Each structure stands twice: as C-alpha cells, then as structure tokens.
Amino acid sequence: MSSLLQMQKVTVRFGGLVAVSEVDFHVHPGELVGLIGPNGAGKTTLFNVVTGVYAPTSGSVQFANCQVGGEPPFRITARGIARTFQNIRLFASLSVLDNVVSALNLHSKNGFFGALWRGKAFRAEEEENREEARKLLEIFGLADAAHAPCRSLPYGDQRRLEIVRALATKPRLLLLDEPAAGMNPTEKIELMRLIRFIRERFGLAVLLVEHDMKVVMGICERIAVLEHGCKIAEGTPSDIRRDSRVIAAYLGGEVANA
Amino acid sequence: MKPRILLLLVVAAFASVSFCFTGHPEASWQLAQLDDYLLNILLMAGINVILAVSLNMVNGYTGQFSLGHAGFMAVGAYGSAAITQIQGKALLEALGFLGAAAPVVLFSLAMLVGGVLAALAGLAVGLPSLRLKGDYLAIVTLGFGEIIRVMLQNTEALGGARGLTGIPPRTTLGWTWAIAALSIYCVGALVRSTYGRGFLAVRDDEIAAEAMGINTTRYKVTAFVVGSFFAGLAGALYAHMICYISPEGFSFMKSVDVVVMVILGGMGSTAGVTLAAILLTFLNEVLRQMQEYRMVAFSLLLIVLMIARPQGLIGDLARFLPGRTRLKP
C-alpha cells in the first residue's frame, strides 16, 4: 500500500541544535497514527515540517507522491493537509460560522472581482458556503451557536470548532496538535469518540501529537515515539507499552542515562 | 449588512443634494451657490472619508499598521496634476472633438491615472515590506511617505519645493462624494464575502490563516493596493480642489491625521471611520480660531475616547445590531 505521507531521513537543525534527526515516518490513507515523546523530543518540530511552518534541513517529505517539503503552509493546506493548534487559534473577531466560512475560501471560485461585482454566481456560491459551514457545524453540534462570537464558546467547543474549521479545507490528512490539552477526563473520552467519528465520517487519515497516554493508547492504531529528535520506537500501542527504550525515555532508566 | 446600507443611503443623499445645489464656483451647471468656505469644508470632508475608509482597509480590516497614506495620496495628486496641468493643454486639444465635455473627461482620466499610479506604488512598497509586522511595517511605510515627499521636493518638472500651481479646479461635491460612496461600497463588498473573510482572518491570526490555506502575503498586498488606489483618488480630488499642491501638504502629519480618523472611528468599522472623518473635518474648522491649541484638543479627544470607547465611535456596535447576531432574543 502506498503511503499518504512519507518522510525520509528528515532532519531539522536550528543553528547547532538538531531538533529532528533523520526521522523516517509514514502515514497510510485512513490511518490513525500517534506521535508521542517526552518534552522537547521534537514532536512539534516534526509537526511543523509536515505543515510547512519549517522547511526540513535535509530529507524528503512526500504527500500523495508529491514533494512538499519546504512549501509554504497555505499551499500544503491546499494539497490536503489540515491542522489544529495546541493553543487555540480561532479568528477571534469572527462569528462561529464565519470561522468555518473563512476556511472554505480555499475551494471557492469567486475571488476579489467576484466579491466586488456580486453577480449571480457569486451569490450562489456565498449561499453554498454558508450552507456547507452550517452543515459542518451541525454535525459537531455547534449549529445553535453559529452566529455567536467564537470567543463566547466554552473551551471544549472552541477546540471542536478548530477541528471543524480544519475539516472545512477538505483535507485527506488531519493533524491534531495536543487536542486533549487542558481537558478533563470526561471531555477526553468525548474527544476520543470524536476523533474516531471524524476518521469514519470523512474518510481521512489522522496524525495525533499528544501527551496524554490514555488518549493515544486508546485510539491510535500505530504509534511513533520520538526522543531527542530521533525515532526510538514504532508499533502498535501494546508494542509501545512494552518497549524498554520507551519506558526508559519516559520514566528515566539505565538505557536513557547510558 | 444594515449599517452599511444606511451609510450608503446617507452618502447618496449627501451626494445628490450637493449635485443639485452646488458645484465648484467655476462649474457651470450649479443651481445655487454655497459659500466657498462651507463648500471647501464639505469637499475636504468627502476627501477625508475616502482617505479614512481606504486606510481602514489596511489598518482596520487587515491589521497592518501603515503610516504612509499621505505618500500614496501625493502620488495620486501629482499623477493627476501631470495630466490636467502639465500636459493639460495638449491633451485638451486632443480631446477637442468631445466639445464641452472634454475637461470633465480629462479629469476622470487624470483621477484614474492618479489612482492607478498610487496603486502601483502600493504594490511596489507592499511586496517587500509586508513581510514585516507591527512597528516595523509602520516604520517602513512612514519612511516611504517621507521618500515620496523628498523626491517630489527635488523634482523640478513637478514644481520642486515650490509646488505645482495652476491646476484647473475640477473637483465638485458630486465627484467627491460619489467616489467616497464608491470606496465605502468597495471596502464593504470586499470584506463581506467568503473571499473577504480572509482579510479578517489575517488580522486575527496570521499563522492560523496560513494554515487554513489563506495566502496571507497576497491578502496583505491586495489590501495595500486597494487602500493606495483610493488614497490616490483622494489625492487627485484634493489637487483639483485647492488647485495648488506642494510636497509639504503630504507630510507625515497628514498620514497621522488619517490614522487618527481610523482609530477614532474604530478599526474595522467603515461606518465608524466615515463618521469620524466627517466629524474631525468639521472639528478642525471649529478649532481654527485657536490654531495653536488645535493639536492639544485633538490629542485630548483621542485620549478620552481611548479610555471611554477603546473600540472607537461605532466599533463593535454594528456587529451587535439586531439581525446580525442572535445574542439577544
């Protein structure tokens, strides 16, 4: 099976610091993959390479058989990779609905002149976009708040809205950056169900960067572990749980200190 | 939607009334004569509305702090004057077949040239500098404004430091307020669309906007070009209103004046900045008797307003009018 995302020997260097070192990693279509590791292991850096925030110093990043390493973020999103943020980054002055509409921009045909002329095609597409945004919000139970300012939503709903916004770009790969951060246990269970649901409903692959072991172990089919910028293990949750290097990396042990 | 329609109606009413009753003293079709002083204030108010609304596109909706609006205005003023004054005679002869309409046609052409030149200047400044953020962008745009001014001062063909005299009086209330209405419509229409949500997204969170597939550089440059285009039109109207332009008229202080209008009116509220531009133009005249205290009064007003209404005169108000949100039953 060919991979959706294929990273080969990806290295990212900031001056003298090697944040990610020769990491090989892949995601198959429709797969649910977790990326874990202790603080400072390079998870977020790797995440930022995939989304185009950083260009890899060396190595290749391929998405759907196209070289994407080093492309600007907006182009990578256009190729079908969408993301959420660790600290919520909604468009604060926009309403809930408009947050989603702004992400529909990517696939809209009407641009600058369409907006000025406001012809038939433009109005039809505007209506379509609003309808589509409303439908997405409905799926995630946010339709009632569509016209409220997005800041007025409770924390968990803001996180969900961020996912809805990412889905509006019609991705094939969804990257979630610590979606469980700041959630209580009930919300975490709800989140796990939500992630599974998204994968089924939208038929996309999900890559999860997460600290919370319960969440990662609970939903991921495959997990990769980073430490000091190197991939030290990869496998199913039960493999990872037994892996001595992973245990050492997290709990501190002779292997890690050697 | 509602505040914009209301605003357009007010501006249209203003424009049509002024079309019927006044014109520039030399325009032949006026029905009644306003006294020159009041006429000039009304013209200046319209020009300030154009300036404020167009700067609001950049500073308010797209969140890029530009301090060079007077520079773009200067490009428009000198560009249009080059058509009607420097090359005026030759071009009027060429347009002779149009008869009495020739001066008006030439003026519209001159305005278009002024606007397009200013837009090109906006593109030239925007492309390299919009990678900068906040204070840095403000300093670059400020520098641009000063460069334009100094360049004009040293270009003898455009009158140098003495300025350019003998520009034909062509600006009428109708022209001014029609273009003001056009700028309000364009900015409003751009922002109120799926495409236009991109400007607001860039302002709210550039990183997130980029991650949602929005080409942030392109949006910023677009806002800049639209803003400078209308600043150029305002410059053209200004030049053909006072008939004499000099580089000193487009100094840094002029840019600051426009920024104050935008801040007073409320960043990102077209209705607000329109109101602020009109109010400040009149306030300027009211305070003319105490010339030396004018700036003190302006600063005081700004301080008081920032404390009492940090969101500007209208600011967020428009967003919470009935029909737009369902916050209140």
Structural notes for this entry:
The complex is a heterodimer of chains A (258) and B (329). Chain A has 258 residues and is of the alpha/beta class. Chain A has a domain at 5-80 and 171-257: Rossmann fold (3-Layer(aba) Sandwich), CATH 3.40.50.300. Chain A is 41% helix and 23% strand. Chain A contains eleven helices and ten strands. A six-stranded mixed beta sheet of chain A has the order 6-7-8-3-9-10, sandwiched between helices. The longest helix of chain A is centred in the middle third of the chain and has 20 residues, at 120-139. The radius of gyration of chain A is 19 Å and the shape is globular. The model of chain A has no long low-confidence stretch (mean pLDDT 91). With 329 residues, chain B is mainly alpha-helical. Chain B has one domain (2-251): ABC transporter involved in vitamin B12 uptake, BtuC, CATH 1.10.3470. Chain B is 69% helix and 0% strand. Chain B is built from 13 helices and no strands. Chain B has helices spanning 2-21, 36-61, 69-86, 88-94, 102-129, 134-153, 173-191, 194-204, 206-211, 216-242, 252-265, 270-286, 294-308. In chain B, helix 2 runs antiparallel to helix 10 (216-242), helix 3 runs antiparallel to helix 5 and helix 7 runs antiparallel to helix 10 (216-242). Chain B is globular.
